Amino acid sequence: TVLSCPGITELTSLGLRIHCRPAEPAPSSADCFYVPVSGPVLVRQRAEGDTIRLPGGTKSIKKLFIDRKIPAAQRDQIPILCDKAGILGIPGIGVNLDRAAKTLPATKIQFHL
After folding, report:
1. What digits encode the pLDDT tens for the residues 42-53?
2. How many other CB atoms are found less than 10 A from the CB of residue 67?
3. Number of Cβ atoms within 10 Å of the Cβ of 93
4. How deeply is 19 buried, as exposed, middle or buried, from its count of CB atoms within 10 A (0-12, 13-18, 19+)?
5. 113 pLDDT exceeds 90?
6. What is the pLDDT of residues 66-80, one digit of tens each?
7. 3-state secondary structure the chain
8. pTM value?
């Protein structure tokens, strides 16, 4: 799924609404990312070899989901946000620190369950 950016995208199958708009860089949270975007923003399932850097370090998404005790049956239901440069973050988990905005231009991506 390609996000409307700027705009609002409803992912009813996941019970998720995503707001995307230009913004000043600010600290990200589990439900609001400030990132520089490179191309269209996509929502997809996890893929083999996906990694993300969080405050505890870089981990494969597979290992992250196992460590967080997310049931195997639910793992493919968790949306991964990415653009052509890679993973931006995972709603409810956090922004990829390698992609967090430090300067302009930045995009605010906020999630509502």
Report:
1. 999 999 999 999
2. 10
3. 18
4. middle
5. no
6. 999 999 999 999 999
7. CECCCCEEEEEHHHCEEEEEEEECCCCCECCEEEECCCCCCEEECCCCCCEEEECCEEEEHHHHHHHCCCCHHHHCCCCEEEECCEEEEECCCEECCCCCCCCCCEEEEEEEC
8. 0.93
